[in-house]
What we know:
Blueprint: E1 4-12, H1 19-27, E2 34-35, E3 48-49, H2 63-66, H3 71-87, E4 98-103, H4 109-122, H5 131-135, H6 139-147, H7 163-176, E5 182-189, H8 194-202, E6 231-239, H9 240-245, E7 252-261, H10 274-287, E8 295-298, H11 305-319, H12 321-324, E9 329-330, H13 333-336, H14 343-357, E10 359-360, E11 383-384, E12 389-396, E13 400-407
Parallel strand pairs: 4-5, 8-9, 8-12
Antiparallel strand pairs: 1-6, 1-7, 2-3, 5-6, 7-13, 10-11, 12-13
Helix pairs in contact: 3-6, 7-14, 10-11
Amino acid sequence: MKRVVITGLGCISPVGNDVPAFWESLMHGKHGFAEITKFDASGMKAKIAGEVKGFCAENYIAKSEIKRTELFCQYAIAAAAEAMDDSGLCNTVSSERLGVYIGSGIGGLGTMLAQTEVMLNRGPDRISPFLIPMMIANMASGLVAMRHDARGINLPVISACATATHAIGEAFRAIKHGYADAILAGGSEASINMLGIGSFTTAMALSTATDPDNASIPFDKRRNGFIMGEGAGVLALEEYERAVKRGAKIYCEISGYGNTCDAFHITSPRPDASETSRMIKLAIEESQISPDEKIYINAHGTSTPLNDKCETLAIKIALGEELAYKVPISSTKSMTGHMLGAAGAIEAIAAVKALEMGVVPPTIGYKEPDPDCDLDYVPNAARKCEVNKALSLSLGFGGHNAGILFNKAEVRNENN
């Protein structure tokens, strides 16, 4: 079995359009929430979102191609470009051994909405010939592969809000078992439009809070739903030996991956948290955590009543209550909002940076403790905390549970 490391990071998010800006926002407890500007939300119950700001597609895509490239694909292309540059992989890996695993929970919802309006108002003959290639959720993975001549394995996972975590986990396994030398893995989403906001609102998932500072408040007793975010996160995964040989910067090592399904309900988690906790245990078993390990958990932490309660229970079951109460846990969704299919990648980047920098990001907006959520959620301010393992958790509609464990890599000096 081969070891797998992270050598590059890239992101587009509501709190920064590159990794340094994203991380700085997290360290200062800065959220990206404001009233929706992408459409007239005056008639909507949910009026706040975490929109990407100041994104310039022309920095990554030819002007002539932008109109036929869906926004979630644009975000993915940008994040992948940063991860690729950061990794130094360009011209160091053969096309046949470079893969792309970039998924999306929803895909081109904006294009679908726009072209539905065209069909209803102007007739089916006026539908864009680019509708299908723009809206299908695998296209981000395809377009990124085209830009980097990545002809190896390509698997755009789609598992709702667990999408990116599954993509990274499956990429980890592919490299571990020798099917690729390097893979760009993550997720992308752009669903802040009338259809996206409206449908999540009627599903009772979104917060209808009007104060951006008290809207996404994971684990707080006042929580009443999530705030939708958008963007993309991409990590460059690479086989350890080749990364060392070429002198790459190694952020950390992936040491464990868990994947289970609640098989219970289309949107609600299993109340006993049995399968979420088993997913955590599977990642821990593969990672071979010892009792003295210093662990940080980036929780799924959606700010919904059921998720946060069940996730807290799952952590207690998986770690045991004695250890669970000692582990720092945070939900960066308190700052980014819920980026759906991109969430797992953005949160994995936060976990990787926490390992690298020795600082744990906070859960902001936390004011009122909930007896059902009584662990250490690193409230309101980043905390200097040397950790040697970081666990990133994601839970998706349909009962999909995924978790990735990262640990500080013991990098061998190639000259020794």
